[in-house]
Fold these 4 entries.
Entry 1:
Amino acid sequence: MTQRLVAGLLAALFMACPSGSFAQEKKYPEVLDAKPRFKTLPNHTELAPTAPAATLTQWNGSFTDLTGKKITYTMVGTDPSTGGVSTTVPVYIIPIKMVYGKANGNHTFDPVKTTVSNGLTVVNNVIASPIFNPGVNFTQGGTNLGTTQYIDAFQRGNFWKSVHKKANSGYHVLLGTPTVLKEQSITVSATLGQVVNNPFGSGIVGTYDINAFDGKLQTYMKKFSQLNPGVLPLFITYNIYLTEGGGCCIGGYHSANGPQPGGQTYSYSTYVDSSGAFSQDVSALSHEIGEWLDDPFVDNGVNCQDNGILEVGDPLEGNANYGAYPYSLGGFTYNLQSLVFIGYFGAPKSTSVHSWYAFQNDMSHVCPGQ
């Protein structure tokens, strides 16, 4: 082999390894049969608080569905048909750091220390988003639902038949400015999770078993004296998908410890920073907070073949961009998932703005079974 040929081969190798090292970049496992989805854990009735000092602000309503059956439900806030009452629910964010060792990826996903494109940490970008920041005007089909938080705009649209009346125009269900509690850390064993290539986008994500994760959340809720049934504990991870029975990928869930009215509701969402990926930025959070709002105790039964309870995010999660739409605020484009109105579950269509079935008018029919 000539010196010129040897030099050429070495130069080619150096170009392939700009650092000057021939070491290969670490390869992470691929996720087979990944399915984007959300989860609702059954109410942990056995964990109901005893004699709670506070309860979640809530109201009860009903409608007769298209099969002639009476549906009763409990939602957060006050009855939109009885006056323009504004409710603000206190929120406590508990960030979760996920730590993977040498046996399962050797990486840490930290929502408190990781910054995103606008320079904010993951947690602070959640707080700056339209989930908490009332800085976006939501005008749907030419009707101004208000300059407000996203979930409030959704609920106003959900019950627009009542809310548009002058006497009820002040109706809101708002989330208070979150208080961030001390970050908690989970060291993930190789039997419960690993670092993998993101099956829906670029970069890497961590996985973790949902039941093990929920067990940790139960422990954390006992640690903080600030938490009670009158507030919403909100758990946030960064670049994490939960698994169930080994199957990936769950972007969030909500549940409750104990039945209404005194049960402790809570919610969890991941924040994924890969553009276009499942659970991108606050899309999973918008899904879960919308479902918490309209089914806080996971017991609002409906007569639908695709959904046994009144979960307003699930019917749209399979749409383009996983049902999310872009909204710019403060120099960042957030993705907010559309949510279905109660007309989808068989309530009178006229209840909602324009008699739509969903916030973005991206649902054309009632649920299967209606």
Note: DSSP finds six helices and 19 strands in the chain.
Entry 2:
Amino acid sequence: MLCWIEVDLDAIASNVRALQSSAEPHHGVTAVVKAQAYGMGAAAVAQAAVDAGARGAAVARVSEARRLREAGFAHPILLLGGLDPGDYADVLALNLTPTVTDWATAEGVAVAARAAGQRARVQIKVDTGMTRYGAPPEEAMAIVRGLQRLETLELQGFYTHFAAADDPDPFFAHQQLARFRAICEQLEAEHINLGLKHAANSAGALRIPHAGLDTVRAGIALAGAYATGWVPRVGWLRSAVALKSRVVRFHTPGVGTSIGYGRTYKVFRPMRVALVACGYADGLPRACSNRGRVLIRGQRAPLVGTVSMDMAMADVSHLPQVEIGDEVVVLGRQEDDEITLDEFAESAGIIPHELLVRLGSRAPRVYVRGGAPVMQATLACDDLAAVKTTCVSST
């Protein structure tokens, strides 16, 4: 392979256990695997997470949940995003738990459940300050009370979402948690069973004391990232994803010539430049042009010229031993050095979350366990049968 993404399933499992130890949720972690588990591949990551003790998974859309079910994932799946009326039948057929934030959706799911002769589980999301997808407190409480009259619906959970748990000052997250607790106490005083209560995302689980509640929704932390530098490095998360490539040829451009599109790098000294088979279609952002670094033979080599769709160039003038076929680490560890996700994201001028979901779908994901590859698949799911076989056999 000339370009690939390695996902360490042991690191995923370790991160789940670290989060559960740090936040102490009563019912374990919920693995947020939306957007293909932040680019790592939802099916394999979700299965590795539940094997390590996670209670289930969460995704944003019904199509994402369908892919998980088709890959053999049989554990609970929470839908975090909105629903179209056309989704109700699929929610029931796939045994999903939708998030409800308005009465019309609650009634629609209830009607679909009645028609299917089923009882549907739902969770209610209350907005405590995110001002995004969530019902205002009074409306959320009204929905909870109304559910008691809908015989085909079961309230499985009640939750909110932190807006700024990864900010320099976590005061607002503490405020949100206090608001959420007060709302829960008011409803429970009415003898309403709210089911699973949860508030914390990855940053909240690591930073806000007592935010673990019944479960924490961990997304970026599964990859071993702490969201921002303000999140304390507790829990000892392990990096779970690496982007790797190979040297495919060399150039020795003359002084006064230029390298790459737009001639953004002018050669001012004798150089040896390695052509790397990784570009922005694979997850190496164009913004890393002339500022990013890669690892070759355990040493750092600066990127020179504009990163193109399929290729990038690295200055290896100081590494005369580098040969065609040598491994190039764009993200991850090689020997004693590491390009961390935080460093890679900073060089691209984006947050780690965005960087991960930009990892190209064409690059095969190589899943590693015990230091050895156990499966290969692409996000295009042309190897879906292999994913399904592996997920089922690992349960």
Note: The chain has a mean pLDDT of 94.
Entry 3:
Amino acid sequence: MGLAAMILAGCSMKPQSNLTDSGLNPENFKKEVKGKQTQLFVMKNKKGMEVCITNFGGRIVSIMVPDKNGKMQDVVLGFDSVADYVKIPSDFGSAIGRYANRINKGQFKLDGKLIQLPINNFGHCLHGGPQGWQYQVYEGTQVNDTTIKMVRHSPDGDMNFPGAVTATVTYTLTADNSIDINYEATSTKKTIINMTNHSYFNLTGDPDKLSLDNVLYVNADQYTPVDNTFMTTGEIKPVKGTPMDFTTPKAVGKDINDSAFVQIKNANGYDHNWVLNTKGDIKKVAARLYSPVSGISLEVYTNEPGIQVYTGNFLDGKTKGKKGKVYQKRASVCLETQHYPDSPNKPQWPSAVLEPGKTYHSHCIFKFGIQK
């Protein structure tokens, strides 16, 4: 090849400088979905941490944090393109609404009126139904280098939930390597709301490595048991003396296969809500996860009364994620801050009702660090 031809060929090659630190191509997130435009937003702080978010489902797509050797690792599962998020149903990284977790038989009463939601999980309504907010396009705004705002206008009757709801999710990347997530919502009618982030954390940075060796601490003396359809029974039971006890940090996998304990059997591992001791105090750690392989730690803070710990039990090794990696069962841990599952049908639990003229507030902080 002559010199001129080589120069021309070089000029025609697509530059790679537009890729994010996590290797994402923003062009793969530009797509029209349900008549709305999607894109990729990027936050970076002065320490080099990077967080990528798409307005399709308000999803966290990648989180780059340093490991114990200073190497940057992507610590969440997800896909390389919006096309894959659309094609392959998942909750990866999403801003869940209107109601995170399950509602029994998709039914609840408001002011004596029975409301029937669509059923999409073992006879129940899960994460807002089959067309919940994780499958909708939020209005995304890059406020500055470290702040992204996502707004969802949910019409009255959306998945049969009452009231036109305007919900805002504000992601802020702080100087201390935390992702600060603030949720707000208002409604034109009395309704229920329970929002969360559904990131699948793999703190090794390598999804080929399962999360069973991750050391977990949950600041909770009690949890809410479930039946074999994953539905809360209405009971609140102590964790002491059971595989549900993470008040002393232990490996996620230590008791995860103890099917002699009915709760492990019912959920095929951990997929439960813990009743936090923090009592809404955002300054108290609700949970802590640590990978002995990478040294990366994650602390969770919240003003919510509960946290769902889900150990990726439904991942089946068939889904290919970022960089072609196959996601195996238990390749991740989800830590979903929330009101308890099925609270609208359990009046003894903290209420998830939102009145017109009132504003729903929920706050969650994911703080990353290194475990020495």
Note: Residues 3-12 form the longest helix (10 residues).
Entry 4:
Amino acid sequence: MTPSPLVFPPITPSLVRTEKDPLGSLDVPDEALYGVQTRRAVLNFPISGLRPLKPFVTAQVWIKKAAAMTHRETGRLEATLADAIIAAADEVLAGRHDDQFVVDPYQAGAGTSHNMNANEVLANRANELLGGRRGTYQPVHPNDHVNMAQSTNDTIPTAIRLACLAELGGLVSAFEALRDAFQDRGRAFDGITKAGRTHLQDAMPIRLGQEFAAYAGTIDRALRRVVQAADYLRDLGIGGSAVGTGVTVEPEYPALMNRYLREITGLELRIGEDRVQLMQSMGDAAGFSAALRVLAIDLSKIVSDLRLMVMGPRTGIDEIRLPAVQPGSSIMPGKINPSIPEMVNQVCFQVIGCDTTVAVAAEHGQLELNVMMPVIAHNVLLSLRILTNAARVLDERCVRGIEANREMCEYWVERSAALATALAPQIGYAAAAELSKRSVKEGVLIRDLVRRERVLPAEEIDDVLDLRKMTEIGVPGGKHGPAPAGG
């Protein structure tokens, strides 16, 4: 079945204004703050039905506000016009005109449509504040004034950097809380010894607390990689203009932009040393996205472990209990599923896909510009958003409420065929392996088999097979090798 194309409703003639651009005239909804170039983009790119993500819009408007402040200070832009642009930007930043940013994330290369959407909204609103009308672009023009000394080619990569940095704090807070929740569960579960598993087969004992503390450590390391990768985003190429060389840009502009952007955003930012390089390469954004991917990979592995440990409750290993958040089946009464970990897995899969898109798009830059920036912006910001929200939900609605099933942990660890490993320093690998195979074949615990076969002196058995000691560094029983043959 052929999917239906996205259809935009026709504009009622009495509710339009006509605007012109270099391609000619076009009707624009009269109530719209955006203008003719934005309207062309809406008609040209009915692709996903999505709007730009809010952080990307915010970052673009930050740049426009900082530019107006810069040009007011240098005198290049008349103070009255600059103040009107700043006031219009402040309205957008306060959330008053969110519905005016309408260009699909899948749009023409570089993000020209996104940039012009911001230019037109701010120009039209600035003119209204000055007593003018929408669509006249007098006295404030979207290109001549709002976009002064700027290009799509330096504003969009700068907006990507600003948006990612602005969202970073939320991600860090969410994952730090999640890390701490796992650490807390690790402390609570430290007295519970359970069967370790490698290859999904019996392995030496481990404490449930050690597993959860390790999850906390994994999150901490992955989060530090993200923060380290984000540091590269602090170098701004704003002022590079069309090809990174700074044509049409006054010399003091980059430093002033950096100063005002720091003031507006509260972010730690640096003046890029090589604006040509910062325009050519999207490597910093790709590196940040890759760090998010690693975070997602680690997180997905952790929640997959939770799903394995909660498996049951009667026909699985049932070592932990997760908080019940919703009924698990429309047909099986009483069924409870690990719904939160399942959601997190799906989020992580999406982030991995987003990073693949970012990587391919970053590679597809040509010469002085990467034209695939819109899809890079959308995917890296989507990854940030869904990872942040998933971590918060996992922390608050799952990890904090996890309980250990001590009885089942103790049940399974005693039945682990891998306990024979503790005997190897005493009786040798081959003999221990034979005991392990007999334990499985006969359905007898290793401990009982050792007693029955008198493999060790009775007074040594409990020491060598001390489950808690097996979870710490050391040689079971204190001996470092089997007795010599015949000895």
Note: The longest helix spans residues 152-188.
